[in-house]
Each structure stands twice: as C-alpha cells, then as structure tokens.
Amino acid sequence: MDLSIAALLAQDGITNGAIYALLALALVMVFAVTRVILVPSGELLTIGALTLAAFDQGHVPGTVRLVAGAAVLAGVIEAVRRARRGEWRRALAGAALWAGIPLALAALAAWMGPRKLPLAAEVAMALALTGALGPLTWKIVFEPIADASVLVLLIVAVAVHFVLTGLALYFFGAEGSRTPPFSSASFDIGALRVSVQSLLVLATSALAIAALALFFGRTLYGKALHATSVNRLGARLCGISPDFAGALSFALAAVLCAFCGVLIGPITTLYYDSGFIISLKGFVGAIIGGLASYPLAAAGSLFVGLIEAFSSFWASAYKEVIVFTLIIPVLLWRSLVTHHHEEDE
Amino acid sequence: MRSGAGLGRLCSTPAIIAFIAIAMAVLPLIAPPFWVTLANYIGLYTIVALGLVLLTGVAGQTSFGQAAFVGLGAYTSAWLSTAHGVSPWIALAAGLALTFVVALALGFITLRMRGHFLPLATIAWGLSIFFLFGNLEFLGGHTGMAGIPALSIGTIELKDERRMCWLIWLVVVAALWTMHNVLDSRQGRAIRALKGRLEMAEAFGVDGARLKIVVFVYAALLACISGWLYAHLQRFVNPTPFGINQGIEYLFMAVVGGAGSVLGALVGATIITLLKQYLQDALPALLGTSGNFEIVVFGLIVIVLLQRTRDGLWPWIDRLLPHAKPPPVPDAAPLAARVQPAAASTLLEVRAARKAFGGLVAVNDLTFALACGEIVGLIGPNGAGKTTTFALLSGALAPTSGDVRFRGHSIAGAAPYRIAARGIGRTFQHVKLVPRMSVLDNVALGAHLRGRAGFLRAALRLDRREEARVRAEAARALARCGLAEFVHAEAQNLALGQQRIVEIARALAADPVLLLLDEPAAGLRFHEKEALAALLRSLRAGGMTVLLVEHDMAFVMGLADRLIVMDFGEKLAEGVPAAIQSDPAVLEAYLGGAPT
C-alpha cells in the first residue's frame, strides 16, 4: 500500500465514519431520553434515501402512503386514549394534531412528487417526511410501554426494525437506488483527490454533533430531556412531559437518520434492507461513547469507519468480521472505565 | 390457589413437563409428517430458548449471539463427520468442548459489561461468526456443506424425521427438567439474584462474576446441542440459520414466551414457529402479492403482545391455571453451625481505615474495635461516613489505606463473597430482596455458603436432602424474626418494615459471627422496633456480635452496649450510651452546641 492509497482509504473511512457518527448521535440521544435502543435507525436511513431517490426520479415516494397510514393509526390511538379518560375535547385536538400534521406533510409530498423541484426542496421534504415517522413510531409503539425494562424496549425496537424492513420492501421494491450528490465537484491536494461531497458530509456531521452537544449540555430544555431518561416520575413532577420528550427525541433522531441516508445515498447503492448493517456500525460508535457521550460516540464512529476502509483493502471478504470483532476489546475497555449502577427490575 | 390440591399439582411445572414427555412420545406415531417436522423445529428452538430463559430472563444478561453457538455445534459436527468421517457422537463432544472454550473466553470478556454492553457485544460476536462461516473455504463458504451422515444409536439409524423427533424431544424434556431443578436449588437462588441484586448476592458468598460465566456457558452448550441435532436432522448446513436474525428470533421466543420461566421457552418457541409458518403460508394467499409481509405481521404481533403482557405469555397462562397451596416447610436436621468465638475476645479491628473518593475523604483514618458478644451502635449525622464504613467492612469497597482485621485476618479489600465466608452477615440500608422470589427462598439465599450442592447435583435432584435442611434453617430464621406466616409470600408483596426484617432473617440464615445492620429500625412501627430489640438482645445472649448504623436514637441508646459517633468521616467519640449523650463534642455535631 502506498501513501496515495492510504490517503484514499482514509478519506473513505472518514466520510463513512462521519455518517456512522451522525447515526451514533441519534442512537445516543434516543437512548438518553427514552432508554430505547433505536434498532430501526437503519430503516429510517434507507427510507430517507429512497424517498429522495423517488423525488429525484419524479415519482411520489411510497413514504407518503406509509406516513399517511401511520398518521391515521396514531390519531386513532391518541383519540381513544383521551376519550377513555373522558377528555373529549382533548381527544379531538390530539387526533387532529397526531393525524393532521403528518397527513398534511404527506399531501404536500404527494403534490411535489412529479414536479421535480430543486434538490434542496426535495431533500427538505424527504427529511420532513421520514422525520414524521419518528414521533409516529413513538406514539404507536413505545409510548404505551415507556416505563418497561430496557430489555423489553430493545425487543420491541427489534420488532419495529422487522416491520419497517418489510414495509420498505413493499413501498420501495427490491431494486437499489442512488441519490443525487449535493455536489459532484472535487479538487486535488497533492496526489489526493478530495470530493466536495465528502467535505460536505464531514462539515454537516461536525455541525450536528456540536449542536447536539450544546443542546443537551448547555440548554435547560436539553437537560430536561436528559432528566426524563433518568427518572420519568421525577421529571413529570418537575413539569417535564416524558411523552413529549420521547416524541421530540424520536423526531430529531428520525431526521438525523434520514439525513444520514441522504448523505450516504450518493456514495453507496441502498436497498430496502441495507440499513441494518449500517446502523450496527453506528451502534458500535455509540457504544464506544458509552451511549452517553456525544463527542466520544463521534470519535468511535470515525474509528469504525477507518477500520472498515482499511480492512476492506487488506481482506475484503473478512471486512465485517474484522469490524465487528475489533469492537469486543473496545467494549471491554468501555466496560472497565464506565461506572455502573445496578439497574433494578 | 383456588382449586383443589390435586388439580393444582397436575398444573405444576414438573407435571406439565411429564405430560409433554408423554405427548411427544406418542405424537410421532400418529401425527402426519408435516407436524413431525414442525415439532422437530419447535424442539430445536426450545432448547436454545431455554438457555436464554436462564441467561436473560433469570440472570438478566441479554444475548443476541445464541445462533452463533448453534452454528458452532452444527458446523463442528458437519465438518468432522463429512471431511474426517468422525462419529457424530464424538463430534458432539468436540463441538461441546469448542463451545465451552469459546463461551468461556467470550464470557470473560463480555460478562464484565453490564446493561446494554453485553447485548451489543453479542450482536458483534454473532455477526463475526456468521461472516466467518460464510468465508471459510473448508466450511463450504456461503453454499454450505451437504452429505452429513444421519445419527445412529447402536444399529438404529435415525434417518427419518419421526425417529429424530423422539431424540430431539428427549433432549428437550431432559433440558426442561434439569433447568427446572437448577432454578429450584441453591444455585438457582443465586442466579436469580444476579439480576439487579448482585451486590447482595456477593454479600452472602455468591461469586457473581463466576456464576454469570457459568450461566453463559450453560446457555451456550444448550445452543450447541441444538445445533448438533439440527445438522444431523437437516443433513446439510449453510450459514443462514446461524446469522444475527436467527439470534434475534431466539431472544424473541424467550421474551414472548416468558423469559422468567422454564415453560416460557417452550411456549415462545411453539408460538413463534407456528406463527411464522402460518404467516408464510397464509399471507401471500391473503394479500395476493409477494413481499415480505410475514415479517411485518410478525413484528406487529410481537409489539402488540409485549404491549399487552410484558412478562410474556407463560406467566399469563400460568395465572389461569389452578395452583396447589405450597405445603408448610418440613422440619429437618439443622445445618452445621459455627462455633461462636469466646466472649469479650477481640473480633474486629479497624486500624486507621481511610476511604477517599477523589478529593472527598468519606472515611478518615477511622480506628475502632469490636469485642465478641457486644452490640455497638455506629451513629452520626447524615454524610458522616457510616455507610461507607459498612462498605469497607463488608468488602463492597476497598479502603484507600489502613487495615481491617477480622478474627486476626486482614479482610481489607477482599471480595465480598470471601468476607461473607469468614462469618460476616449484613443487611442493606435500601432493602435488597429478590422481589419475585418467595420470602423463604430469599432467606435461604442467606445460607448459600452453608450448602455445597452444585449445578450437576441440583440438575439431577441429588441435592434434596441438603436443600430440605437449608429450607428448614431459613424457615427457623424467619420464625425467630416473627415472620413465619409469610414464608411462601413473594418478597415484593411484604410491607417495607417486614422486608427489613426479612433482611435480618437472611443475614441470620448465614450463621454469622458478626452481624452488620444498616438502619434496621427505619420504617418500623413501635411494636416492631421492640420485637427487633428483643431479637438482637437474644442474639447477643447467644454470643453474636452486632454492629448497627441507626438514626433512631431511642432505639439505639436502649440497645447498644457501646456507641461510636462519626462526623465528617472521623471518629468523634466512643463510649457507653450515657457518656455519649452528655459528650459536648457529640452535642455540638448533632445540635450545634450543648444545651445550656
């Protein structure tokens, strides 16, 4: 291996690593607020990318029907829940909110579908539409069991991953798609060709990481969100709604995941089921950060991206073996330096 | 608890396992081949899910990697029996040995990790081994290996599925029965305490780290046996059934069926297998399109199921079944008891013990001694370092410097389970009972070190005589504490004050020389406090030494022979209660000055 190949691999690794880092952030955030390990993050990623690809080809994306269906379901669930408590007016308002907003988004997206608007508008719509799936998933699936054990939440998250994979196949078909890059320009630094796209990936990832770290570390609302994960009852007593916090974190996470899809779409052809293995690498990064620290999670993800790039050069058949085996010593190290509290049942 | 004892006994777990054994002996004779095939798969999955019940449901360690252990068993036998002509039975031994080594190594690494680290580590391990199977040429790569010989017992070849069905279900029934026995034993109590009660278990002599590894290896070996059976049933292996998705499905089975109970594994494996089978057949016909609808519906069903019944299906079924009322605990010969050391000899010496957390010195060069047969109260304002001192004595924390000597041996920094073995029993400031275990079993856990029975003896029910003595001992400890009527209640159903007394009963069951009580009177009513004081006095009369942290001054002043007062991590005063009550330094610390 000479230096130029090494530099190329490093660029590859860092670009992928930055995307894993974004995913890792979404995972850390959702876990920190809700204790849910967001296994379906990979599906949200593919759905985001495939939605953009559909817009790009002038179709109405299948996401429109997916969101519309979920919105109706969430509206009904909210209405029934409120009505059972006798809160009739709130039942109507809740149903209108939970069904109305996503349905309006879906209608707008359906209108946009065949019209070939500028790329930025298409990206924004893909993010908004996929982002809507986040709070809808929270509402339908997780809110009723928000106080269950981490294990039950994990199993349910895996079930959601299955559901979304199956639905993605139905709505997008088995063919893979690529999305248009933001920029196809590139420039040379010495022997190395740097693509503007990868710089964009890096810059946006860094921006998102900084923003999240600031939000959770410095703002009152961010701290309130974190407080709900530590003690739901205590947070409620302090005037924080855990349900709203959950919906918000799922929304943010879904947008982040969809954004990862938009970033990775031009680099890799994505199929309906490509998300899982990508999200697992995000997990590895998140775990390196102990599912708690944003900067560490980002660093861990870069590390995963680099290992992946270099092992694909040396032993491509064993790429996944190497990536996933190497994390075991990392996990061991994390477990040694993390202070544990016994979790009660 | 509603119906007659006879019907209740018929619905006990061993009776149900016996019923399954009979049903599965008959089924291959009368059922059509399709059902036999299904039964075979349900059996194979049950064996793996059973390991997860122990590992995840009972011990609280989540693994997504069980399919990889199934793969180890299948591939070892496939390769040895095709490429080297080795007998499948020898290959089974080889597979078990390999699984043992791998699980031991992985256990050492991953079981240190608590919470969500372990499940993710097992995903990583499951993925790696899957890709390894797919890339190793000598294992046939992604296409797999064919031509695996059928099993034979003597001259009988188990070529057809009916015969395999008998073998598989023989293994299933044996695994169910032995697992039920293990959970209902000395080791079983310790395993149940691993989940969220590790600190407590270690204080009663359980080597938690070791036990977790044992449980992990046990679950892996079960998975390996299932894989071996699979290889010789299918006579063909490829990497797909050992991938991460199958690993996830095994966990689904355990959780959906009810990961807390042995029969949950069987229920989960049955439901999930039948459900998938049905969905694969019914959905394409129903919806008229091909697609992956079965995983959508499957996922939805799991979600709804867990939203409705979080503990899984079996506990829900179990509630509908009649249960026999548990009989009173039969009396048995007492366990060997320690000889209490001579009265007034020095039992415990704390020499300049210090514990610093970074810059905060929680215990600052504390020195005191306890003589045999006295009750000493350790008092002081909140944050004085009393609980930290307890942690140093019981091994929960290691002192930064200084020494703790118990009966002439240094115990500073020793593991809690080793200190427990030397004869120190303790209670916890925050009650630490295993909430879903009976009061009797909770107290019997205290006597962990007074029994010897290991996994094998428990699995084969050879531990019954010892177990009867342990249970009788626990019942006596409970009776002594005035809780005889609650022996069979679930610990979580007792009032907090009663739970504190159960903690004391558990410590007594350990037959300690020194009893450490952390705020035993908190939350107790007046009469309960009086009964507790009487109990502690009678223990002292029997030669036991008691050190207690207590905030209830009336209680501790009337009970203790001596008091040690701590403030800001240091010893402020020491002496008989009357002297302490008028000590100016103590009054300063408590009241901000002596009354004038």
In short:
Chain A is an all-alpha fold and 345 residues long.
Describe the structure in your own words.
The complex is a heterodimer of chains A (345) and B (596). Chain A has one domain. Chain A is built from 13 helices and two strands. Chain A has helices at residues 3-34, 41-56, 63-84, 88-112, 119-142, 150-172, 196-218, 220-230, 232-237, 242-264, 275-288, 294-314, 319-337, and strands at 186-189, 192-195. Chain A is globular and about 70 Å long. The model of chain A is unreliable at 340-345 (pLDDT under 50). Chain B contains 24 helices and 14 strands. Among the domains of chain B are: 5-320, ABC transporter involved in vitamin B12 uptake, BtuC (Orthogonal Bundle); 437-506, no CATH class. Chain B has helices at 5-10, 13-30, 33-58, 66-83, 88-110, 117-135, 161-183, 186-194, 198-203, 208-234, 244-257, 262-287, 293-308, 313-320, 386-394, 416-421, 439-446, 455-459, 464-480, 496-509, 526-541, 553-559, 577-581, 584-591; strands spanning 145-146, 152-153, 156-157, 236-237, 346-357, 360-371, 375-379, 401-406, 409-410, 424-426, 514-518, 545-549, 562-567, 570-575. At the A-B interface, helix 6, helix 11 and helix 13 of A face helix 5, helix 6, helix 11 and helix 13 of B.
What topology does this entry show?
The complex is a heterodimer of chains A (about 350) and B (about 600).
Chain A: H1 3-34, H2 41-56, H3 63-84, H4 88-112, H5 119-142, H6 150-172, E1 186-189, E2 192-195, H7 196-218, H8 220-230, H9 232-237, H10 242-264, H11 275-288, H12 294-314, H13 319-337
Antiparallel strand pairs in A: 1-2
Helix pairs in contact in A: 1-7, 1-8, 1-10, 1-11, 1-12, 2-5, 2-6, 2-10, 2-11, 3-4, 3-5, 4-5, 5-10, 7-8, 8-10, 11-12, 11-13, 12-13
Chain B: H1 5-10, H2 13-30, H3 33-58, H4 66-83, H5 88-110, H6 117-135, E1 145-146, E2 152-153, E3 156-157, H7 161-183, H8 186-194, H9 198-203, H10 208-234, E4 236-237, H11 244-257, H12 262-287, H13 293-308, H14 313-320, E5 346-357, E6 360-371, E7 375-379, H15 386-394, E8 401-406, E9 409-410, H16 416-421, E10 424-426, H17 439-446, H18 455-459, H19 464-480, H20 496-509, E11 514-518, H21 526-541, E12 545-549, H22 553-559, E13 562-567, E14 570-575, H23 577-581, H24 584-591
Parallel strand pairs in B: 7-12, 7-13, 10-11, 11-12
Antiparallel strand pairs in B: 1-4, 2-3, 5-6, 5-8, 8-9, 13-14
Helix pairs in contact in B: 2-7, 3-7, 3-10, 3-11, 3-12, 4-5, 4-6, 4-10, 5-10, 7-10, 11-12, 12-13, 17-19, 17-20, 19-20
